[in-house]
Structures are given as structure tokens and as C-alpha cells.
Please model this.
Amino acid sequence: MTAAGPAASPKLPVALTPDPTVLVLFGVTGDLARRKLLPGLYHLAAAGLMPKRYQIVGTAPAESGMDQESFAAYVQDVLAHFGRRELSNRVWQPFSRRLRFVPSQPEKMQDLAQAVTEASAEIKAANRLIYLAVPPDAFSPMIKAIGKAKIATAASRLVIEKPFGHDLASARALNRALHRVFSEAQIYRIDHFLGKEAVQNILAIRFANGLFEAAWNREHVAYVQIDIPETLTIEGRAGFYEATGAFRDMVVTHLFQLLGFVAMEPPDHFDALSLQSTKRRVFLAMRPLDPARVVYGQYRGYRKEPGVAKDSTVETLVALEAWIDNPRWRGVPFYLRTGKAMARSALTVTLGFRDPPRHMFDRVAQQKLGESPNELVLELADPGQVHIPFLAKEPGPTMTLAEAALNFSYADSFQAANELEAYERLLHDIMLGDQTLFNGASAIERLWQVAAPVQANPPALLPYAQGSWGPKSVQQLVEPHRWHLGDD
Ligand code: BG6
Model:
């Protein structure tokens, strides 16, 4: 499969230019701001996707040592390290003129409030984008302080990062704290996986092609796998990881969100209202997880990582079986797996199809039939691929079956001129006020309900070797099927 040809060079519609905006970045000296947000905003500026008039007001506690004088040099350094493109004077000069830094902390926000008011007046911008790139325990006090200091106006949008609470009760408490200051329409709960090109391609593949959507149900699909192994360990993130673990870091967030995309009914429109409510209906139909069908693993050596407790029981790998009790999916297991320090990094969704009536080939190709599952494989890690292995007749005088495949690769099929990294796409959506790829409060709360039995009764923790596919019971979980990844 090859796409019709390279896309024409981009001529951006006016609707893609956001209204003038003041961006207020809390936690601007932290990891997320350095790796994703500042480089992302710079890339958007280079791509001509920032508003005509904007200001970026960075903030962090005074103890960070940052001040107005050192801020531009700090940002320049961050861009040199983490940016996707070389710094160019043409982009950097105007970008750097829009940077300000003001120290703040929850009990001391007046200077920041004043700077934000000045920035808004200077560029005549009503819109504000307030990004909380701060640790989760800082969310609630910060939100309260932002409200009190009147940094939040009716035209402000608030962006928060997962984890949205650590269980149902704390997620509800967080939503209450948010709603005291912001309406639901102003809140952008970000899950960066939904900003990935290939993840959105799930919707394109399903709903723009009769072939795939026709087979996307219990009649034809025997199992679904959503698999996100990572080779990286928790290097340098012990504090966060010890408090979070793989289940909350990845499963209740990214994997469940992907499941929502894979399993949803066709939305009426491609807009926030339709997409969010269709995805939420999947979550409502999810059966609360059965702890007996969940595997927790911890890689050997985890307890020796700096900052990790010597007797830590935090899981670094999770594999589980989920069920969606609705007419489309009843009886089809969804297998989810993710882990650190595994054999390879991937982001793969696999649909395994039911056996076709192929017994007439039994005698001629027994071996191949046993070995070759009928699958549709979506490789969603950038740049993304679709792979459909199938059996075909080998040319020759006998009816011999051989493995063949249909392959589509983003990199080979499209010009990447319009490509945005996940955070870039989502930052741009927020500036446009488009909530299509974000999550509402009730969807998040529902996911914690689904997760609750495992949190109340976590499975025993099993060790696994670094560089492996996890403990043996991860394989046993999917029997009589096999994981698509690692099955070689
Ligand atoms: C983050 C998790 O949200 O996603 C990390 O906290 C994980 O633990 C990361 O490694 C993976 O995202 P990406 O985009 O790098 O694949």
C-alpha cells in the first residue's frame, strides 16, 4: 500500500492561526517544559502556527534561581539541547522578544498576575493559556492560587498533565478543585499519546475505509492487543515513578485512551463533543478489571536504582485483560501490556481475526496455518506503519501457502512537511480552543472506577529480566493466542 503521492507543500488556512494569546507556563524550569513545551512552542513559531501576537510568561519558584535576565539564555540553551531543528535567527529573534520570566509560588502570585495583565494589554490579547507543568501534588494549591490572584479569566484555558488524581476519590477531589475556578470547557486534560499522528490515524483507517470498519467487531475480531513496551528504565525519575508505578503512569492513562480510540463507535462528527462522548461510552462499557487477570512485574535491578526504596513494591510492568461489554465487543478480550526495561520499544495495536474457513488447506500447509495469525498490526510509534501479514499461494504447480504482507509506512508515503510532534499538535489545538483530543472529567473518573479493583487488590509482583518480554505469566495471560510483539 502506498499513498497516492507526496502531499502538496503546505499552505496553511487562516483558521489554523490562533487568536492572540498570553501563555503562562508554570514549572518552566522543569523536565516537561524543557523537553517538550519550550521546543514545541519554538517549532510552532517556525512552522507559522503561533498566533500573530503572543507572549510567553514562564514561572517557577524563586528558589529555581531563574530570573528575567537569565531566562532567554536558558530557553536558548533548552532549544539547542532538545529542539527538533537548528536555531535560526529569523525565528529565534522574534521568539526571544516574547519571553518573560516572573517567579511565583502559590502564596505569592501577585507579581505574576501583574506581569500577565501587562502582557495581555501589550498585545491586546484576551486569551490565556495556563499550563501546569508541575508535580501532581502541586495541582490543587496552584489552581486555588491562580483563581485567587485572578490570573484565570473567562477567556483562559487551563492545561493539566496526568496523572489526574491517583484513584477515584482523588480524581473527584481534583475535578472539584478545578471546577471552583474553571468551567469544563476551559480545562484541557492532556494525554500526549492522543496527539501522535499515527494514533489519530486509527480513526482515519477505521472510519474512512469500508474494508476495515466492516471487520472491526466481535464477528471478525478474536482479540485486540495494545502493547507499549519500552527499553528505557526509570533512570532519573525515581521520585515520580515510586509514587506512580506503571499502572497509573501508563495504563489508566495512555493505554486506556488508546483503547477508547480503537473500540469507539463511529462518532457523528470529528469534533470535541462527538469524539469525547463516543470515547466515554467505551469507558462506560468497560468492565471493572479483574485483578486475577492482571500481571504486575518489576525488572531486576529496579530496587538498586538511585532513589528507589530497597524493598519497593512498585510495578514497572503491567499486562492485563480488559473487556468491553457492548454489542460490538462483547466476548473479545483486549490485552494491554506496558513495561520499562523490556526487549524493545514499540507502540503497537494488533487486531487478531477469527480463523477463516481454511481447513481445505490443512493438508498442504499445516505448518504455515498454525504459525501465521491473521492480524492487522498498527505500529503507532512515530512515524507509524500499518502491517497486514497474510497467506498467499506460492507460484508453482502445488497449492503451497507462503507468508506475504501489505505494508504502509508513513515515512515512505507522505511528505512530513506538516508533521507535528504530539505536544506541538496539542498545544496548537489548545490555542485554537479545540478540545477534540482531550478528556472530560467524567471520562477520567470512569477510568478510575474501572481500575479500582486492581488498586484495592493488586496482583503479586513478579520479577523479570531487563531486556525481556516480562514474566512468564504475561504470555500465559493471552493463551491460546500469542503477543504479536516478542513472538519470535
Ligand atoms: C509518559 C510516561 O507519559 O510517556 C513515561 O510518564 C513514558 O513513563 C512516556 O516513558 C512515553 O511517551 P513517548 O511519547 O516518549 O513514547
About this structure: The radius of gyration is 24 Å.
